[in-house]
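Please, structure for the following, as tokens.
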Amino acid sequence: MSVNHGKVGCDENIIEVPLFAELAGYGPFLGRRNLGVRDPIYCRALTFYDGQRRNLIVVSDVMASNDKECRTMRGSLAERYGLDPSGILFIATHTHSAPLTGASDVGYGEVCPEFVENWRKTVGFSTS
């Protein structure tokens, strides 16, 4: 009888939100800004390994995961950790307590490049 053992790992880190960065998704109430931390914004990762393949789920407290950014980070993470890019999933919790990570419809606010860079660094990828 063979026994298969799997491995699971997890981690979390806070994504720093720049002071006065515009928060996402307030529609007609544009201009809502980060005035300080009440509850931190997190990026959490969960990885599963079944002895043959490792998959990774990255959950970020952002309104929406920017597809372009996620594709870039997915490729970098796959290369760095020897993963199949199709086994990396990005999920957004849809909070309105963080800035946008990419272009969105009119009325959702402006992208904050400093927050996007903080998000990249927290996920483990940076362009700088």
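The chain is about 20% helix and 25% strand. The longest helix spans residues 67-81.
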